[in-house]
């Protein structure tokens, strides 16, 4: 399963570059350059704290529990990223890249990790 998650990170990086160039272009916007910078920081830190605290409640040796953990973690993280892009970068259509990456990642987890 560790290899599957590593491959997912590689696939996400490649698709982020390709889809970002196709939809947005060379000048991509960042939420950290808008008024949503603090909301982004607080949100991602909160998600990470909750994710790390979940390790006390799940058995990390159980593959099924870890698959569900990664599915929830990925969905929440990229869903939050999509929401921030949609609110703060609506003019750049960066939110479409985030939505496509969310769909690709969830599909990958469902088909190849499960």
UniProtKB/TrEMBL annotation:
Pfam families: DUF4181 (PF13789). The keyword Membrane applies. The chain crosses the membrane at residues 7-24, 39-58, 70-89, 95-113. Keywords: Membrane, Transmembrane, Transmembrane helix. This is DUF4181 domain-containing protein. It comes from Solibacillus silvestris (strain StLB046) (Bacillus silvestris).
